[in-house]
Every structure is written in C-alpha cells, then in structure tokens.
C-alpha cells in the first residue's frame, strides 16, 4: 500500500505520556493501518522523578535517559526537533528540527504530550538568576555548579565571598524541590570532607515555600515527618515565605531576610508547555481543556494529555477535578489515549480515563524517605524501599533498570568522587537557556506561515 494513503498519527513529545502512547500504538496497530511519527528534541525519554539523584551524583545522567530506539516493535518515524506551533484547522504541526530547519508536518491525528515547563512569576531577577530542575541538562548543570561553589569557596580567602558560596536556596516545597534540597544537601555534606579548608558549619541550605506546609499531598503527619528529617539534617525550612527579588550574589526573601548566595534553584510548580498557547484552544489554568477521553472539543482527531492537558479526574468525587501533573497519571493516560486513537481510526467507541491515585513516594537521600503507597504512611528504610522499588519497576527498559540498580549499589558502596566536569562552564545555565520557552510561534506567525505555504525554511 502507498504510505501516502495511510492515516498519519503525529505524537508530539517523548515523555511519560508520549512514549507510552507510541509503544501501545506500535503494539496494537497493524503496520498498514497508520503511520506513526514522534516529534521529540531528544532521542531519549527522561525519567524525571530521579532527576534530583542525577543532580546529587547518585545516578549518572545516562541512567535516567531511556533510549527511544530500544524496543522490539520499534517502527515509529522519529522527527528530531521541537514543535513550535500547531494549526488545528489546517492540521499542520510546525517543527524546528535539531539542525534549525523549520518544517511543516501535516497529520490526520495529533496527540499532544509536550509536558510542562517551570512556572515562574514576575519577580525581579528570577529568570536571569534562577536554575530549574526540569531537564537533564539542568540537573547536570546544577551538580557542576554546586561543586564549583565548593571549589571556589575552598580557594578563596575572602570570608564574605566564601560564606555566600556556601549558602544555597531552593524555592518550592513540593516533591521536586524537597527532594532536590535533600539530595543536594547530602552531596555538600559528604563532599566537604574532601575540602579541609572549608568549615562545614558554613554550609547552609534553605528550602522555602509560600504554602504553610511541605508537600500537602502527604497529609499533615507525614509532611511534618519530612520537615523533621530536613531540619535534623540542618536544612533551614521556611514556610509562608517566597522570594522578593533575586540577584547574582544574593536573594531577598519576602520576610525581609537577605541571603548572600550564588545558588537559587527554582522548583515552584510547573505550567503547560508554551506549545499549548499556539493552538488558540480553550485552556484550564494554562492546561489544554480536554474531555475524559482526552479529545479536544471542537477539533476532530486532536488528543492531549499529561502535564500539558487538564484531563478530568473521574476517580475524584468533586466536580471539575483534574488529574494532577504526575508521571503516574501521564503514563496511564498515554496507554488509554493510544486505545482511543485506534478506536477513532476504526470507528469504535472511545472510553474515558479513570485512575485512582496510588500515592506518593519521596526519596530524601540515603535511608531518609517518606512514602504513602495506597494511603499507608511509611518513614525511613521501609519508605525508601518503596520509593526506590516503585521508580525502579517503572523504568521502561531492562537496561535502564540495570544501570540504575548498578548506580545505586556503586554509590552505596563507593560513594561519590564529586567531580566537576566543566562541560557547561561557559553557559549561564539559567531557566530560559535550558527550557527554550521563547522558541514558539505566536498564533499570527503560525497562521501567516501555514496560509503562506512556507514548507521548509531555516
Ligand atoms: C524533579 C521532578 C520530580 C518528579 N517526581 C515525580 C514523582 O515522584 N512521581 C510522579 O508521579 N511525578 C513526578 N514528577 C512529575 C512528572 O515527571 C511529570 O508529571 C511527568 O513527566 C509528565 O509527563 P508528560 O509526558 O506530560 O511530560 P514529560 O515527561 O515532561 O514529557 C514531555 C516531553 O515533551 C518534550 N517536549 C517539550 N516540548 C516539546 C515540543 N515543543 N515539541 C516536541 N517535544 C517537546 C520534552 O522534551 C519531553 O520529552 C516529577 C517532576 C520533576 C521535575
């Protein structure tokens, strides 16, 4: 059969949702039933929940980057690039390829899973000075940056500069921020043994959040346990506090404190990918409004899910509840959306997404953890076993499982050598640089391009 006559399914984004969707399409669709294309800037699926362990050096970057090409049923065409706009009327997705060529990719069915980017606010200096924790490059950069601060503090004789280099601020008391602060504090605590000129008492980690509690999803008792673990480790937790302004060498908190520091890590939530804004479709708090079947109302053949979409949470009793932006939901939505795409192709009935949350696991490094699987509150080693067991079993390939397990064992036995690679020493490493939030077309640019039949450009 001529490939041109086959329906074209375009999946945008190779994260938890996109990869699960593609894998199921590959398994369930006959080869001549449809062509599947995946638009992705990277050739791997990033296992984001383990990113704090990459930043702290417990895992190597490669172990959480799962190859997209390792699959027995692999037959998807991978288009290496990022979607920068989607014209839902013309059914065209505009893609900037990794060699900077802009191409139009027509489709019959599109599955939008571009995930989310770090949410920022209009705080002076924030985007210029804060680091994010959403990409592999950011995690690797932060690790190098933190070790750089130790190296520079060790080499310098100015007590003021030394103190500033040894203070670190993490904003965001959700699981991403809490795990990041906890894992990096362990890194500096262990690394300082190798720096005899540094007084360990000068190292200070701050974790702040505007909310009154850390990780409210954990419930009050478990949240307090997590806070207690952090306090015991010397992390200064400040709740009801945010950032007033950020500078290159100091951060001002909203409670008036001015903290001299060269390290501000911003993990205060996420917003849907800016790609969603190019569609001109309805959104719910920035996420694309979709039905429980993950279709976009009023647009045939358009599906969206994961962090980028507001998928109704039918397992909750409250009306208007949407699924939280978690990997747990994204993976399961990915499988369900593949079934619904196939049902649409075959003229069958679509089914809604329903999943009851399984709970939360929070790895604070070493033997410290809190977990709430299926509502059961766990602390310490049992919580850590559940946290690591859960992530390990959720890794998609056996090679990734082996790499992660080997890294954990190696780290437990041999520790870390705190090597500063210097690969990215001349990059600013700040939010905009790694998350490319300004790469998208405006709706007007998109219309002009598609109506003008631009085809390919650089
Ligand atoms: C530090 C951290 C810890 C976390 N811990 C947990 C946890 O313990 N448990 C949990 O359930 N969840 C956790 N999460 C949340 C979870 O990772 C996300 O909810 C999940 O990744 C969402 O899946 P997704 O497929 O929607 O997006 P992602 O997995 O982020 O995938 C989006 C993909 O789209 C690609 N992309 C982006 N823009 C474009 C574009 N324009 N064109 C093409 N491709 C694009 C990206 O490169 C990426 O591959 C954590 C998140 C972070 C940051």
SSE map:
Blueprint: E1 8-12, H1 16-28, E2 35-40, E3 44-46, H2 51-55, E4 65-67, E5 77-87, E6 92-97, E7 102-106, E8 109-112, E9 116-118, H3 126-129, H4 136-155, H5 159-165, E10 167-171, H6 175-191, E11 204-209, H7 220-232, E12 235-239, E13 243-246, E14 250-253, E15 258-260, E16 264-266, E17 270-272, E18 283-284, E19 287-289, E20 302-304, E21 309-310, H8 327-346, E22 359-363, E23 369-373, E24 378-379, H9 380-394, H10 398-414, H11 431-435, H12 443-451, E25 456-457
Parallel strand pairs: 1-2, 1-8, 2-5, 8-20, 10-11, 10-16, 11-12, 19-21
Antiparallel strand pairs: 3-4, 5-6, 6-7, 7-25, 9-17, 13-14, 14-15, 18-19, 22-23, 23-24
Keywords: FAD, Flavoprotein, NAD, Oxidoreductase
Organism: Streptomyces camelliae
Protein name: NAD(P)/FAD-dependent oxidoreductase
Would you give an account of this structure?
This is NAD(P)/FAD-dependent oxidoreductase. Belongs to the NADH dehydrogenase family. Pfam families: Pyr_redox_2. Residues 8-334 form the FAD/NAD(P)-binding domain. Keywords: FAD, Flavoprotein, NAD, Oxidoreductase. With 458 residues, the protein is an alpha/beta fold. The chain folds into 2 domains: 3-118 and 271-357, FAD/NAD(P)-binding domain, CATH 3.50.50; 126-268 and 359-434, 3-Layer(bba) Sandwich (FAD/NAD(P)-binding domain). The chain is 32% helix and 22% strand. The protein is built from 12 helices and 25 strands. It has an 8-stranded mixed sheet with strand order 20-8-1-2-5-6-7-25. A 4-stranded parallel sheet has the order 12-11-10-16. Strands 13-14-15 form a 3-stranded antiparallel sheet. Strand 13 and strand 14 form a beta hairpin. It binds flavin-adenine dinucleotide. Residues 12-18, 39-42, 46, 48-49, 51-52, 82-83, 113-115, 133-134, 175-176, 273, 275, 306-308, 325-328, 330 line the site of flavin-adenine dinucleotide (FAD).
